[in-house]
Amino acid sequence: MRKFFIYLSLCFAVSSCVEDRDISNGDDSFVSNPDAELIHYWSFNNTSTPNTLASTTFTKVTGAKIDYLGSYYDDVSEGSSINLRENEESGSALRLRNPSGDFIISIPSTGYKDVVFNFVTTRTSNGPAQQTVSYSTDGTTFTTAGLTNYEYGVTTDFLRHQIDLSGIPEADDNAHLKIKISFSGNITGDAGNSRFDNITLDGIPTGAAQPSKLEFLHYWNFNDASSITSLIAPNLGNGSLSYAGSYYDDTEGTDKNTLDNDPAGTALRVRNPSGDFIMNIPTTGHTDIKVKYAAMRTGSGSSTQSVWYSTDGTNFINSGMIFNITTDFTVFEIDLSTVSGVNNNPDFKLKIAFDTASATASSGNNRIDNLTVEGYTL
Q1: Residue ranges of the alpha helices (H) in 63-188?
Q2: pTM, whole model, 2 decimals?
C-alpha cells in the first residue's frame, strides 16, 4: 500500500495546534499516544464483493463506512505493508477509478477523544495528482479549520498521512465525524486511479460507557454432512433453516466467509424445483444486523436470489435486494442495520426467493455456504 501520510503532530492536552507531515515507507517518526486504542480499521483485503471490500476489518463503534462519489471502486492486488493492524497482511488495496469524485470516510468517535486518522495512498501515473483533506463534525459541512497542510501532491509510491484531530474538541465523542478527501489534477479521464490502504482511526477512551461490541449471533458452515439434520445444524447460535423446494443435500464447499479458520468442507445444495429458503435467525440482544453467505449455482440453477424479511416470523416484506448468482462462489452481504424492526427481535426471519424458471426446472441447484449473522450487543 502506497503510504501517503498527512501528519498532524499530536498536540494532545498541552496544545491545540494541528500540524501535518508526510511519513514515507519505513519512517516511524510519527507521534502516537500509548493510551490510544484502535477504533476503526480498513485493510481492504476481503475482495469477495464490492461490499466486503469496503467493509471495516475492525471497528468498535457502529456507523463506520466509506463512500466514493467518482466512477467506481474495486481492488488492486498490490497493497501496502505500511500501517498494518490486527495481524493483517499487505494483501490488496482500494482502487478509486477516474473520473474521480470525493472520497468520504465516516469515522464515528463515540466514546473516544483525541482521535488520530491515518491512511496510506498512492496513484498511477495518470491518476489524480493532488489530494485535499477536510473533516466534518456534523456529517454534512466540511472544513479545513485547524488543519495547516491539508493539500499535498500524490506520488506513485505508497506514503502514509496522519490527520491529528486531537486539537479539535468537536471531533471528540462524535457520532457524525467524517473525513473527506478531494482530488485535483488528472481527474476527468477514463484512465488512471487513486489507491488507498490501511485506513485507521485511533483515540483515547473518554471513560464514559463504551459502544456495544460486535459479535456473531449465528453461523452455519454446513461441514457436518453425516446426516440431513446435522448438515443444517448451526455451528453457533439457536437459529434454524428450512427449504420449501425439492430437497437439499451436500456438495463441495468454499472457504469464503468462514469463521475460526474452518476448512472449505461441504456446502448446502438446494435442488430444483426451487422453493423458498427460510432462515430463522433471532436477533435478541443485538442491533445493526448483517447477514453474509457464499452462494453459487449450476448452469440451470436460479440466476438470482431476492431477499425478504419478517419481523413477526410470519409475514415477509421485500427488501428490494436482489443478488445475481454465478457459477462461482461469491460472498453476499445483507445489511439490515437501517431496517426497522430487525433489532432485538426473537421472531426475525429472512427468506431467499429464487427465480421463476428454477421453480419448475427438473434439474439444477443453488449452493450456499458459510452463513453468518453478526450484530452489536445492546
Answers
A1: none
A2: 0.54
